[in-house]
Design goal:
- The chain is α+β, with helices and mostly antiparallel strands and 433 residues long.
- α7 packs antiparallel against α8.
- The strands form 2 sheets. A 9-stranded antiparallel sheet has the order 5-6-9-1-2-3-4-7-8, covered by helices on one side. A 7-stranded antiparallel sheet has the order 13-12-11-10-16-15-14, covered by helices on one side.
- It holds the Pfam family PH_FAN.
Length: 433
């Protein structure tokens, strides 16, 4: 099966991917498109998939990975309509015409690179199987929503999303065993770094099933056998007690992190899951983990990960990514004497208080501020941008998603641990761990 290049990271934050269609992107001579031309004037076409999302449509060519993905935001669309040729044509007209002022090219030559903004034109998409009449009204509604003010736009999109998702029920044919007893079924959002994907979470007496509302995943349903669950943890998501993280193993370690609509339904799902006979996760007591660490049975790394987990931090959420403190403060010596206390950072103080000179300047600045605007530290020790500062080379797509298709200035890129630590000691706005 050919791997798609399209991912939710190519969309705007909070944007929802609905569904896709098999289409031809019709190409005209000199790339000049005109509604007066018939299909016989098209020199060629690109076969691909047209992704319908809540704020844009994205075209992905099927057979040529060198072709860029084309993203057309509804807010940049001048007109969305059925294309009507002016003279008789042998081809049945099932063509969508999108006229836009600008569009975006992504993954050109299949290389992760900054997105390219292009001047607009008219795109013609010939639908293979779907009937255009069934979908053009939805596209026009989404286009109309993009012309509204932000609050009204979000409300209209939320209404459209709610209507679409309420029509989707869990397909019982995906049950591993038709004799399974369905316990409960809730709407949830799957949480991954910088993206949220809605779906349904269903509990039976033997399995947990997650069915996304779209086809972004390789399999239409994620099946988690209760017997294979290794950890089952309540989490906070966006400072609300609505998250739930499942870890299981079916030959390889896997993870599903979801958020519920509210804490009540989250707690209900948690309670009903733990009551099933096949559920056998034993909750670990923090004191026992600390004792294992003190006796060298687990590493410093694993113990810090456990402490981060207690604080609701997870790799799936960049806003609550695991934090590892600066431990060593000497990054200039060729050799370190780990028995020398002076090579270690003072862990009784936050980063902003490690340099007394800078701390004094911060206090003076704070005193000079108005009573209703006072603050000591002007930035946080961890945030999505700070996390990706370290991880940009490993996850460049995340940085492009966070910064609207651009990488940060080269002078602000992570290069040396020594330079980063030095900056954290002297800069008045840098307090990252």
């Amino acid at each position: 099966m050919e791997k798609e290049r399209f991912s939710l990271l190519l969309l705007e934050p909070g944007e929802i991917y609905f569904e896709d269609f098999s289409v031809d992107l019709l190409l005209q001579p000199d790339d000049q498109q005109s509604q007066s031309k018939s299909s016989s004037s098209f020199q060629s076409s690109l076969i691909g998939r047209l992704k319908m999302c809540s704020k844009s449509v994205v075209f992905e060519a099927k057979d040529d990975i060198r072709q860029p993905l084309i993203k057309i935001a509804y807010k940049d669309c001048l007109q969305i309509r059925r294309w009507e040729p002016t003279r008789l044509d042998t081809m049945e007209c099932n063509v969508l015409a999108i006229e836009c002022s600008h569009y975006t090219e992504m993954l050109n030559d299949n290389v992760v690179q900054p997105y390219q903004q292009k001047d607009g034109k008219v795109f013609l998409f010939n639908f293979h199987y779907a009937k255009l009449d069934d979908y053009i009204q939805q596209l026009c509604q989404l286009h109309r929503a993009s012309t509204l003010h932000a609050y009204e736009q979000n409300s209209m999109i939320a209404t459209i999303v709610f209507s679409r998702h309420n029509r989707v029920k869990f397909n019982p044919l995906w049950l591993e065993n038709l004799y399974e007893k369905i316990i409960c079924d809730y709407q949830v959002d799957e949480i991954n770094p910088l993206v949220v994907n809605p779906g349904r979470l269903l509990l039976t007496n033997a399995f947990v099933y997650f069915q996304p509302y779209n086809n972004i995943q390789r399999y239409p349903v994620v099946k988690i056998r209760l017997k294979t669950i290794q950890s089952f943890t309540k989490r906070r998501f966006l400072l609300r007690h609505v998250g739930l993280e499942l870890r299981w193993s079916d030959g390889s370690d896997q993870l599903l992190y979801v958020s519920f609509r509210n804490q009540t339904v989250r707690d209900d799902f948690y309670a009903k899951t733990t009551q099933q006979d096949d559920f056998s996760v034993v909750e670990q007591i923090p004191e026992s983990i600390t004792l294992k660490w003190q006796n060298g049975l687990i590493s410093n790394y694993d113990y810090l990960l456990y402490l981060n987990s207690l604080a609701d931090r997870t790799y799936q959420d960049l806003t609550q990514y695991p934090v590892f403190p600066w431990v060593i403060c000497d990054y200039t010596s060729e050799e370190l004497d780990l028995g020398d206390p002076t090579v270690y950072r003072d862990l009784t103080k936050p980063v902003g208080a490690l340099s007394q000179e800078r701390l004094q300047r911060l206090k003076e600045r704070c005193e000079e501020m108005g009573d209703d605007q006072k603050f000591l530290y002007g930035s946080h020790y961890s945030a999505p941008g700070l996390v990706l500062f370290y991880l940009v080379r490993k996850y460049p797509k995340l940085m492009l998603c966070l910064q609207n298709g651009r990488f940060d200035h080269p002078d602000r890129m992570f290069n040396k641990v020594e330079d980063v630590y030095s900056n954290c000691m002297i800069n008045m706005a840098d307090f990252k761990e």
